[in-house]
Amino acid sequence: MRKFLSIFLAVLLLISSGCATIGSGRAEVVRAEDILVNSLPVYDSVMALHFQISEQEPADVYQALEKARKTFPPAWRSARSIVRSYKAGRGGDVNAAVNSLTDALDELRDLLAQIKNIKPPKPVG
Fold first, then answer.
1. Contact predicate 112/44, CB 8 Å
2. Which is nearest to 73 in space by CA: 109, 49, 40, 96?
3. Taking the model in full, what pTM does it have?
4. How many CB atoms lie within 10 A of CB 32?
5. 91 φψ region: left (φ > 0), alpha (ψ -120 to 50), beta (else)
6. Which pLDDT does position 70 carry in this prediction?
7. Cα separation of 43 and 49, whole Å?
């Protein structure tokens, strides 16, 4: 029982110190970092699907996806740069960066909803 209690307290200490590290930052910075990390898999998934089925996409969806392909990476890099500057004490409007990146991410989600029902072509062979 004593060994179990020691292990339990050690795990609890690790968890609470990890949460304290994350939670000690300003809410907008934590949110910005969360969006930065989580937006990349969404972008990658949408673009992978787009490349698979681009020939079957309606023209307006294709154009919107191409626009997103060109505009999302600079928006992401800009937001990352602003967060880094803010954390280094050089200022920066983190909320504006979050809003810009959130808008781009919302557009990606909308596009994903439009293309997820398009079936990719069957492989030849």
1. no
2. 40
3. 0.68
4. 26
5. left
6. 92
7. 10
